[in-house]
Every structure is written in C-alpha cells, then in structure tokens.
Design brief:
The protein is of the alpha/beta class. The chain contains 13 helices and 22 strands. The relative contact order is 0.11. It binds zinc ion. The site of zinc ion has 6 residues, from loops.
Amino acid sequence: MSEYVELRGDRSVMHVSVAALRKQLPLSLRAHIGWVRRKVAPHRIWDNAYFIDTYNWLQETQWWSRDQLEQYQLEQLQALVRHAYENVPYYRRVFDEIKLKPRDIATLDDLVKIPLLTKEDVRKNIEGLVARNVDRRRLEYTTTGGSTGEPLGVYHEQPRTNLREWAFHYRQWGWAGYRFGDRYAKMARGMIERIKMNGERASWDYATDLNELLLSSTKMHDEYLHKYMDLIRKFKPRFLCLYPNSALILGRFLQRHSITDIKLQGIFSDSEMLYPSTRELAESGFGCKIYDHYGLTEYVADAVQCEWCDGYHVNMEYGILELVDEEFRPVTQTGSLGTVVGTGFGNYSMPLLRYRTNDLASFASGTCRCGRDTARIQEFRGRVGDFIVSNTGKLITVNMLLGGHSLVWSKVREIKFRQEREGELTAIVAPASSFDEKELAEEVRDELYTYLDEDEFAVYVELVDSIPRTGERLKLAILEQKLPLRLADVRQSSSEETPMAEENSNSR
Ligand SMILES: [Zn+2]
C-alpha cells in the first residue's frame, strides 16, 4: 500500500543552515514563523495552478453520477491505451503479439482484453515501459514500499504526479473537515531522525509550509509517546495522520495510561491494513473517526473512506480498480474476495495497464449514505500473505488474534507474528514496561489460545526490547509469513467464514 507522497526539493547550503537554526527554536515559535511564511509566500501546493485546477475539478466530479464517471473512465482508458500503443515499446510488443489494437477497447468491459501486468513484468521491462515521447530529464524514479520482496520502481513526471496525488488526498481530508493550513500531526517514518536537534537525533520536527507536526513512528517507547502527547497538547492539531500499526500502539498507550484529554477531529490512516480492532481503539482514544486510504505507490488505483466510513469510495477519476480471482477472471459479485488490479490515468510517462497486486478486497453493495455514486470497496483484507495456517491447513486472518479486549494487551507495547511452518506461530512481543517476562509470555500465549485451537497451533512467545521496522519505509509488518500462500486458498477459506465477515460489516 502506498503512502502520502512527500514533496521535498533540494535545498541550498544556505537554506540548510537557516533551517538547522530554526529547528533549535521552540515549537510555538516555529508555528508562528510558519503562519507568517504561509501568509507571505506562495504555497508550493495550494497556490500551484495545476493543483488548484485538479482540486476544483475533483470537487465537482465527486457528485457525478455513475454513468458520468464511467463515461469519463472510458475516455481516459481509450486515450491511455492509444498512448501506450503508440509510444510505449513494451505495450506495442505485447499488443502486437495478441493482435490487439487500441480501437478494440470500445467499452469498459473490453479492459479484460488487455493482459494483466505483474510486478515481475514491470521489473523485467522497466525501460521498455517508459514512453518514448516524454522528456527523460523530467522523470523521477520512485520505489514502492517493498516490505515483502524486492522493491519496485516507477518512473513518473514531477511535480505533476505528486500534485495530482495531493488533490485527491485533500479532497478526502476535506470530507473530514480539513482546510488548507489546519494544524495536523503526522507520525512519519524514520526520515526525521536524520535531523539533529540540540545535538541529538530528532524524534519530532515541524514542517512550516504544511503546518505539520512530525513525530517519529520508529520511536514509540513510552518515554517518546509521553513526549509526543505533550507536543500534541501544545500544538493542538485538529487531525492526526499515521500508519494503522502506529495507531494500534498509540491507542494501547492511551488506554494503558488512561489519557483521555486529547481529542481530535479526525485521523487519517494509510499504507497498511487497518484492522477493525485498531480502528475501535484509536477512535475511542481520540474521540473521532478514522478516515482510511488505500493507495499504491505505482499510481494505479486509489480508494478512500468518506465521512460515513462505510467501506471505501473508489476514486474513479484516478483510475480503474478491478478485482480478479485466482484464475484472473473479474470478480464483480459484491462481498466476494479478489485481488486488486489497477489502471491509473495519471502517469503517462510509464503507463501501467491492469497492474496486479496481492491486496485482497471485496466490492460493497448499494450506495453510500453520503450520496457519492462511485464504486465502493466493502473491505480490504490485507495481502494474500496476511493469513496464518493451522496444521490442518485452515487459514485464519492475523487480525483475529488482536481483536480481544483482554487486559494482557495493556502490557504489550508492540507485537508481531512470524510463521515458518504450518501449525506453528511465534508472537514477538515488546512489553510496555518491566513486567515479569515469564508471566507476560504465559498471558500472551493464553490470550492467543482463546482464538486458536491448541490442537492446531503451537504458539511460542519471544520477548524483545523493540521490534525492528522493515523495508525502506520502516513499517512494522504485523505478520512475517514465510509459507507460500495462494489466492485460491484464501478465497476458499474466506467463503467458508462469510457469516463472520457479514457480521463485521454490519456492525460498522
Ligand atoms: Zn460515502
């Protein structure tokens, strides 16, 4: 899953030293400087003409009918396919091999005539996928999260692609009540730790232009979290933006220390699977809703939650989001799981048509109460690898294990699971403070056995000081699944547990 895209230009030496000086100042003063700066200087995003046009256009299109949205998608798809055929060597070759011409794409249903594109295809054909008619000097190469397997790179044209991303992000933020310039806090990856403040590696920073308080998501020991809460009390952000796994750690922290004085208007989450138990914890802790976002760094598909948080609206102006089954046939039946396939309209430098991911999702039925007539996703279910396997071959979603309200969770700061063999599961636990280790390990095991059958799983608990973040985005992956899982297994097991899935969706 992707993340909020950063726009940070190169800085001159002079600029760096001024910035370094500013970083020594107290937060309140920096916030004032930020206010002045935003008043006097044009904003790199909010005052950009292309951004404004796109953003205003999206304000209109959100109320388009499904017919209008689909008509727009068809026009975009036809233009993109023509461009790919005429200018992208890889697509010229693939289309010619199967004797497909751009004119064969006459309706949206014709999309299935185009072969799926795998990560492996992209990796092997990276140069052949770049359009010949673009100025290579304008292209930026961005690698995707890659928490599992090798990272994958995509060429795109800067700053256009990011401005377009921001326009979609800000539309959703607006649904939560955000206005440009509003204060928000963001728990970010390790990048802020490269900054030094008062001679030490920073755990927080402030971004003047966005009015954003940055907190490090890799430093989440209680001593840091207390410090973050103090910063939040001083800064008074209206919103918080973070990874779901950080939301879980933070929600537990609030509960553990009975912190109830920090209330927000909304939380934006992104980049990882958001489990219902995490949502419940963070929403009650901060007294507001979580607006989750599903996106891909490959710029192919995008879906967001509205103010009703009932499933996800597919951003149909962004691209086409399909679901396919294990035989790569389209899944159109609502409630049925498939993997996400995306065709993005925004990246002409390296168009990816029908890009196949491992992310599991199902379509929702009916229309949303907000009145926006888009296709909707009922739920995202993580990746095919987010399941654990019993010794009888039964699959269980890892989020089941963390759903309980047991007291033991108040003693756990961070947790992740590892599975190397069927019927075996290791829980790696970083305790909240100095609890008796043997006792805590026993309690965690007992809690896990309320969900798992002792005949089907041997559970081991490993206590550690902290859990290393993985991948270049430094995320905390909740499950390290070493077993090769197939989509067919997951779909099979999901149709067996449908009654539970329905119950979940009704309760939201
Ligand atoms: Zn809605």
